[in-house]
Amino acid sequence: MSSAPQSHKKFKISDSLNRQLNTYALVASAAGVSVLALARASEAKVVYTETHQVTRAHVPLYIDLNHDGIKDFVLRTTYYAGTSYFKVGLNASGNRNINNAVAGKRFSHSGYFFSAASALRAGARIGPERKFPVNFPFMAEELFNRVRSSQYSDLGPWVGKGKGVRNRYLGLKFVVHGKVHYGWARLSVTLAHHRQYDDVSGALTGYAYETIPDKPIIAGQVTGPDVITVQPEALGELTHGRK
């Protein structure tokens, strides 16, 4: 007895992603994208980008999640010197589009309210159920009590035990053509406590987004039948410091 034919859902990719994948096909050997991955490109639902970029003082690090030429998010080192204290830190936020946001939470410290970016672990679910503060949530800060003092304190979800964290994830929400998509960025953050502009730095080692609007994504998911991996550096797609 023959089995009934099975129906298959067709997945329509965006024009920008389609152009991107066509470019990868032309330079597959340079980009390191496998033939199998290209063959399954039209079915891809998660696009993962391999990279390695490190934040630098005074130089914003931009993330273009879907490689459409629009900088969706930005990482910035911060520095503030007051009369009785100063601080250095690292912030993450949506770039330009006010609907782009970083997952996190609001909390109070010393009578002030802050929005802090969550340091998610691999496997965390990023989707509509998460809270996404929109006001430049910070990741980690070093606070020195007096300008000439070596005493300091650390603040933020990414400080770990005072030395930073490795391979944690920013939860990202961004809008493409009026549709909400979710993604993540993998970072390791280090704290130096040297009272320098770049005391707090982040190493961006990968990012991904879900091509289906409103569908959650799993932080750290880089393999599976629904994932395609790309390497923009091989195509000259460096985003660090671009204006």
How does this structure look, described?
There is one protein chain. Helix content is 9%, strand content 41%. The N terminus and C terminus are likely disordered. The longest helix is centred in the first third of the chain and has 12 residues. It starts with 14 loop residues before the first helix and ends in a 13-residue tail after the last strand. The chain has a 6-stranded mixed sheet, with no helix packed on it. A 5-stranded antiparallel sheet has the order 2-3-4-9-10, with no helix packed on it. Strands 6-7 form a two-stranded antiparallel sheet. A hairpin with a 2-residue loop joins β6 and β7. The protein has 3 helices and 15 strands. The chain has 243 residues and is mainly β.
How many distinct beta strands?
A: 15
Helix content: under 10%
**Shape category:** elongated
How big a fraction of the residues is strand? 35-45%
- Structure annotation, total helices: 3
Report the end-to-end length measured between terminal Cα atoms: 63 Å
Q: Biggest sheet, strands in spatial order? A: 5-11-12-13-1-15
**What string gives the helices and strands in order?**
HHHEEEEEEEEEEEEEEE
Provide the structure class: mainly beta
Radius of gyration: 20 Å
Can you summarize the main beta sheet? 6 strands, mixed
Return residue spans where pLDDT drops below 50 for at least 5 consecutive residues: 1-13, 23-40, 237-243
Q: Could you tell me the mean pLDDT? A: 81
